[in-house]
Amino acid sequence: MDFEIPTELRYAESHEWADERTDAVRVGVSDFAQDELGDIVFVELPAEGAELGAGEEFGVLESIKAVSDIYAPVAGTVVAANEAVVDSPELVNEDPYGDGWLIEVEPAGDLEHLLDASAYEETI
């Protein structure tokens, strides 16, 4: 099965993506992850201002099949949480790299430890 894996993003082995923007890093789950979970019915995200360590659990995705923790690909401070996915969890399934993003983090480090698209593709 072919999954969308945008080459401009970096990826964690736990299936989160990170998009380095000018002022923050936007984080979501990969197309592969949303497909594995199935229809997402509930999203729990941290409050703005929450401090995250790299690899630390920051939220929950609940689908009709499973409950899955979401992990921070980078350390930093949460500067935005996507309330649209809390209100409409199906956005994570419909547009995981667009409207289905989860949080934005002011990073406390770089993204060098994350996988590029081709390395991530090998893990799935």
From TrEMBL:
Keywords: Lipoyl. Binds 1 lipoyl cofactor covalently. Residues 24-106 form the Lipoyl-binding domain. It holds the Pfam family GCV_H. GO terms for biological process: glycine decarboxylation via glycine cleavage system; protein lipoylation. The modification N6-lipoyllysine is found at residue 65. GO terms for cellular component: cytoplasm; glycine cleavage complex. Its cofactor is (R)-lipoate. The keyword Chaperone does not apply. The glycine cleavage system catalyzes the degradation of glycine. The H protein shuttles the methylamine group of glycine from the P protein to the T protein. Belongs to the GcvH family. The glycine cleavage system is composed of four proteins: P, T, L and H. This is Probable glycine cleavage system H protein. It comes from Natronococcus jeotgali DSM 18795. The lineage of its organism: Archaea, Methanobacteriati, Methanobacteriota, Stenosarchaea group, Halobacteria. The gene is gcvH.
